[in-house]
Write a structure and sequence with these properties.
single chain; mainly beta; Porin; eight-stranded antiparallel β-barrel
Amino acid sequence: MKSLLTFALTMVLAWSACGQLVEDASELSFSERIRFGGNMGASFGAFTQIIVEPTVGYIVTDRYFAGVSVLYQYIQIDDFFGLNEDFQSHYYGFRQLNNFWITPNIFAAGEIELLNYEFIEPFSNELTRGWVESVFVGGGFRSSLGGRGFMTLSLLYNLSYDSQSPYNSAFIPRIGIFF
């Protein structure tokens, strides 16, 4: 665990040393302000998860970046709750993100997410599909990838975290790439 923390801190410091902030957004055309990117991920085994999250972002000002994401996740859990049955589902939804750069590489972040997924009702223990809203706040680091591209590494806290949350923890790490 200590080596993982040391590695993460080293990467964050390296990223923060090489990033650049847009110097004057007012000089950028509409198309120069748009960034495409997002997240992708997968894990396989007793818990299988495939994530696809394309994002479109817009440089609003020198310090403010906003965007929207479409979310899709495929989930499969072997031997769900020890019932000798597998569980599989498709989650989908939308996220609106806001990053405000405090320094050229450090930003405050806020997100609102609507996710349609299956969860267990607390009193009936029945599996139900529904929309769940999550509100995230936090911060992160930004690094230039050369040219128009950049990468963000953030840690967010889910203010709406409860028993119906689609996340295992109120703390959510995110990595995003934009071009």
